[in-house]
Amino acid sequence: MLPYGRQSITDDDVAAVVAALRSDWLTTGPQVEALETDLATWTGGAGCAAVANGTAALHVAYAAAGVGPGDEVVVPPMTFVATASSAALLGAKIVFADVEEETYTLDPAAVAAATTARTRVVSAVDYAGHPADYDALRAALAGSDALLLADAAHSIGASYRDRPVGSLADLTTFSFFPTKNLTTAEGGAVASTNPELLKRARRFRNIGLVRERAEQRWPDEGGWHQEVHEFGLNHRLPDVLCALGRSQLRRLDAFLARRARLVARYDAALAELPGVRTPGRRPWARPAWHLYPIRVLDGRRREVYERMRAAGIGVQVNYIPVHWHPVFADLGYRRGSCPVAESFYAEQLSLPLFPDLTDSDQDRVIDALDAALRGVPARTAA
Prior knowledge:
GO biological process, one term: polysaccharide biosynthetic process
Family: Belongs to the DegT/DnrJ/EryC1 family.
Order of helices and strands: HHEHEHEHEHEEEEEHEEHHEEEHHHEH
Helix content: 25-40%
Cofactor: pyridoxal 5'-phosphate
CATH architecture of the largest domain: 3-Layer(aba) Sandwich
Shape: globular
Pfam families: DegT_DnrJ_EryC1
Protein name: Perosamine synthetase
């Protein structure tokens, strides 16, 4: 089965992990700070806190923003459930706002309508690697105290109006899951240009420990002393995985370039294929292209999904609208509240896209899609 996403691991990656394994540090050590420094070169200098995974990054970012009971967090439904659930676990009420028709990113007009005096955070998701319209979202929040969060799980290395993702919002979260644009196996990061938010993020990911003597209440206890002023959790990313991430970052430019070439090939091959619509993009965006999401028209998405899977092509659907999950339905959220996202979901299909996808394998995907749409068996791979 040809997967929709796959990590790219080289001998250099293996050597970096082996070197970390043979060092004095397996958990938090020098590779953590080094990875955070390396990541900052991709975020326009925004400081970074490495964490255990992309969901942890969201949890840490919401905690850093002070999200708690009585607060509202605005989220698009076209995302992985963690964008909403990690805020709900802190006690926030989730408010779903619809997405734009072309990019399936958060609609600024919907945000303006959803924002209230209780809104603590608005979370924009860079769906498929295409940045949300951050200037328009800022304008939609004019007069509000809400923080803007970029869920950039799909978009490290992307840019918006020539500004890098990571520098566009008050807080930005990344995921380094194996199918993402670089991997640490499991892992993620929180970025912020606000030193106070970054400090809060780093403390929360480390159980809330305060080790700086100048900030302790009882600093003269001894060299071993540490305090917890606010509760946190262990969301740390170990040295051995940070070593893998640093090695992967050296190839991020190449990863992004290969993804862009594959997207251009898909665009050209599918432009005249009846029954599908290729992903849109805005002229001010340089997407990172984590996904290649097509729309299968005329109510045929499930049929095409099953035909392509039967042909050995691991297409995927990204994502079930978050408010459709039973956990949110049981809280009173109803289908029909975000019609653009729900219409997109009914047609969405992600085609395989990853740096090691060969041109011949991509041609196999295209042939299988054409065959599925025509209702004939796909050619058998040689």
